[in-house]
Amino acid sequence: MWLNRLGMFHPLSLYVGLRYVRARTHKFFVSFITWAALLGVCLGVAALIVVLSVMNGLEDELRDRLLSLSAHARVVASQTDDSASDAGTGPSAESWKEVTRIVRAVPGVKGVAPYAELQALAVHAPEMLPIALRGVDPAQENQVTDIAKAVTHGQLTDLVPRTDRVIVGEVVAQQLTLTIGDSLTFLVPTVAANGAPAPKLVELTVAGIFAAGLADHDATLAFSDLETVRELAAGNEGLRVLFPDPLLAPQLADRIRAVLPKGFQVIDWTQDHASYFRAIRIEKTMMALILMLVVAVAAFSIVAMLVMVVTDKRTDIAILRTLGASPSRIVGVFTSQGLVIGWLGVALGVVLGVTLALNVDVIMPWLERTFGFQMWDSDVYYFTSVPSDVQWPMVAWIAFAALVLTALATIYPALRASRTEPAEALRYE
Fold first, then answer.
1. pLDDT of 248-275, one tens digit each?
2. Residue 104 — very low, low, confident or very high, per pLDDT cuts 50/70/90?
3. Domain limits at 233?
């Protein structure tokens, strides 16, 4: 009856559990473990949010740099197309015009531009370098890539048709010691009609240098006008497509794939760069598992703390049982105590982690100035600052996982408390 009256004003389990949380100050060791568990959960959750946010930011930065000179999708002639196998000429110009019209009409397509690409050996005595020579139409290329912004010396419009000009990457220019106005020879491997090798040589003038901030572009790419590259290797051409959001590329590529005529295929950027982002996903997964172990260790601290509290409160448990408290209410008392500590740690960790992640661009420069170090050396890394991208669904999943771990940590001590026999506990009191 007494317990029922008390329960009318307070949920008994929560009321007693909160009293136990507040009463820990006179037990130094138990109090220390309590604060250590709370701090461990807080730091574990915060570290997980900050690290994964920075990794998200690095992934976004890498994607932006990869796509700065690469379209969101490519339309190319299918390898099984009969017309593409005849003398390596590929589909006719009229076929490409029709495909361009079809692709432009697909909902979600923001821009379409033709291109041609071949593998060649760039030679500037005494150095030589394998390179991808890409032919573009300057008037249309800006609709699908940011190449015009990447050109640091010269202009994209310098690629006037029939003028034999080329724009090379910054790393290519450094390795081949090229400057504006230098001649650059390209050795293009081709095959004659009888199947014999028939390499072609073409000499182009360096009209510009670009810097995309990624070795995959700056060290391997060169741009020339579309007609020049088409003449060097007919058939190695296609369309580059831009979407409003690169993350929608797979879905929008499916729309294009559904309306393309036979003999053409579409490849989106997630297929072209699958290895990069597969590696990043694996790294993020492993990092999340490793940092979640920090939260798990803190959860074990909650277990140890509650076990000591149960041992210390055997007399109180026996009195509550004598007054009519059921085993389930005893379970609720210690579950409430553990959840208050664990969930408070999770809440503080979320607040701390999100605050740090949102302000990492301010915190890192301050730390570098204060302690005299540089995390991203511009001579080594393309990134000069720490990017961060806080994704709220990710934060929610981290908080949920931490809450589940701390809740599981309360089960064993609470069940142990519920099995306390009143007579045995009060025998020597």
1. 999 999 999 999 988 899 999 988 888 8
2. very high
3. 73-273
Quickly tell me which residue has 């701090």 as its tokens.
Answer: 39
Q: Is the pLDDT of residue 230 over 80?
A: yes
Torsion of CA 111, 92, 203, 165, to 10 degrees: -30
| CA pair distance 80, 3, nearest whole angstrom | 81
Cα–Cα distance between 276 and 259 in angstroms, integer?
A: 29
**375-415 confidence digits (pLDDT tens):** 666 555 566 678 889 999 999 999 998 888 888 888 888 78
Instruction: Reduce the DSSP state of residue 187 to 3 states and report it.
Output: strand
Task: Clarify whether residues 384 and 410 are in a common domain.
Answer: yes
Q: Are residues 124 and 30 in the same domain?
A: no
The yes-or-no verdict on residue 2 having pLDDT over 60 is no
Write the CB contacts of 269 (distance below 8 Å, at least 6 apart in sequence).
66, 67, 70, 71, 72, 73, 246, 249
Distance CA 209, CA 169 (A): 6
Domain boundary at 217, 252, 273, which?
Answer: 273
Residue 407 makes CB contacts below 8 A (sequence gap 6+) with: 335, 338, 339, 342
Same domain, 240 and 343: no
Q: Do the domain assignments include residue 68?
A: no
**How confident is the model over 345-380, as pLDDT tens digits?**
899 999 999 999 999 888 888 887 888 777 666 555
Largest CA distance in the chain: 104
Backbone angles phi, psi at 244, to 5 degrees: -60, -35
Tokens 């703390």 — which residue?
Answer: 305
Same domain, 49 and 166: no
Residue 12 falls within a domain, yes or no?
yes
Rounded to the nearest integer, the mean pLDDT of the chain is: 81
Q: What is the DSSP string of 300-341?
A: HHHHHHHHHHHHHTHHHHHHHHHTT--HHHHHHHHHHHHHHH
Shared domain check, 331 and 242: no
Of 252, 244, 214, 227, which Cα lies nearest the Cα of 69?
Answer: 214
Q: Are residues 211 and 328 in the same domain?
A: no
Q: Are both 259 and 288 inside the same structural domain? A: no
